Amino acid sequence: MDxxxxxxxxxxxxxxxxxxxxxxxxxxxxxxxxxAFVGSLSVFFLFIPISTLTLFFIKIxxxxxxVLCSFGYRTIKYTLRNFTYLYMTSIVLGGFxxxxxxxxxxxxxGLVFYHHGLSINYIVLIVASPIILYLYIKxxxxxxxxxxxxxxxNLYLKNNQCICLNAxxxxxxxxxxxxxxxxxxxxxxxxxxxxxxEFGMILVPYQTVSGSGLLKCFKAEKxxxxxxxxxxxxxxxxxxSIHLDGVDCILNKKIMEG
Length: 258
Prior knowledge:
By secondary structure, the protein is an alpha+beta fold. The protein has six helices and eleven strands. It has two domains: 2-119, no CATH class; 149-256, Acid Proteases (Cathepsin D, subunit A, domain 1), CATH 2.40.70.10.
């Protein structure tokens, strides 16, 4: 029981630490240790003759106590968010552990799996779990920092012509034409399915760290992002591809500021 308790304590500590980093809770290590200790107490219920349903509800209560001990209570939404991330992270880590255990501790013949040798759960928990959670934290922070700048854009040209774009808000893009000061959004040339000569070209000078030149632009009727519509802007045609994940349009900071 002492080994099972220590393993669960380490497991819960890693989970709570991951949540603290992902959600930026900034709590002390002592509170996380306390939460992990409370969570580890659930292993003792495995040795008490109670029903599976009762054990399930006990684990839910203990999970709530874990997040309350670790992160405190501010609002119901705050607590539910901590509770949800606890289970999401548990599923991610538990799924990886199960997968690795199946790969290395079981032997396969056709569609039949049977145990072959010593289970590696202990080794994986000690060595692989921090690595798995580190990668999970890194990816989670990347998503929070970048994907909240992604937008679905409907660009309307004349005669109700519409182009659907995956756009990214680049806070460094403040390009505007020097005459009417209309902000310029940038679009991948490959997404321009209509003849750009139909819309009348406007040349806008630009300057970047790699050089300067004239950017071919045209005026669109409007741009729709969600329920909001924008009218006073230009669309610049980029000859080079946009090196962002799934992005074919760069929004302008000044447009989003209104």
